[in-house]
Design brief:
The chain has 124 residues and is of the alpha+beta class. The protein has helices spanning 54-61, 81-89, 99-111, and strands at residues 2-3, 14-18, 21-24, 27-29, 33-35, 40-41, 67-72, 93-97, 116-121. It has a 5-stranded mixed β-sheet. A 4-stranded antiparallel β-sheet has the order 1-2-3-4, with helices on one face. It starts with a strand and ends with a strand.
Length: 124
């Protein structure tokens, strides 16, 4: 288990992660999830990261975040270029990271009160 200690008072801070799960606030999540400062969705993403597509980005675009961090699992993956171009055309940054790095980055940006969306796939 990897514990994170950034700002535990923020509503959706990632407090720990490990193989097959992440803990967001007090909820242990074991499937792909979409997280903002105030929302957590576990049913809006495909189970396989390679099935993530531009249609999955439409609800994110409507939130107008500064940045979307996509935690791609154990290793950093780069997905279909259409995902990145859909977001950047809306002036939304996108970063692909392994999930451990994405968890840490998400917490830092959350503590900085940035408008951020995290998409997290489990480390397996």
């Amino acid at each position: 288990m990897n514990a994170l200690v950034d700002d535990p008072n923020s509503s959706n801070t990632i407090t720990a992660y490990g193989p097959g799960w992440i803990k967001i606030a007090q909820s242990k999540i074991d499937k792909p999830c979409l997280v903002t400062r105030t929302t957590l969705s576990v049913d809006s993403l495909p189970n396989n990261i390679m099935d993530l597509n531009i249609q999955n980005m439409e609800p994110i675009v409507s939130l107008h975040p500064e940045l979307v961090i996509i935690g791609t699992g154990k290793k950093q993956l780069f997905l279909d270029q259409k995902i990145s171009s859909t977001l950047t055309k809306q002036r939304i940054g996108v970063e692909y990271m392994d999930t451990a790095a994405a968890c840490r980055s998400f917490n830092i940006l959350l503590a900085e009160e940035r408008s951020i969306v995290g998409i997290f796939y489990m480390i397996v």
